[in-house]
Specification:
This protein is mostly helical. It has one domain. The chain is built from two helices and no strands. The chain is elongated and about 55 Å long. The chain starts with 9 loop residues before the first helix and ends with a helix.
Length: 73
């Protein structure tokens, strides 16, 4: 079972999520290769959802990175 602990560093959590997404992408890709018809369409929709999640994670990581290098005024 997976649980999110209180106090986990945001960047660490996002990096871990990115790793989980890579596994989901690989699994979905293999399933799309084997599927046909409606099942393949559903997996394609899932692929688009994974793309959206990846974009959000990357944007959040970029934001964290920018905060770390931004000068403190």
């Amino acid at each position: 079972m997976f649980a999110v602990r209180e106090g986990v560093d945001l960047e660490d959590a996002l990096v871990h999520l990115s790793t989980l997404l890579k596994g989901a992408f690989a699994t979905n890709l293999k399933a799309m290769e084997l599927a046909t018809g409606t099942c393949q369409d559903l997996l394609m929709a899932n692929d688009h959802g994974l793309d959206a999640a990846k974009a959000v994670v990357e944007a959040l990581l970029d934001g964290v990175e920018m905060q770390q290098v931004a000068p403190v005024l």
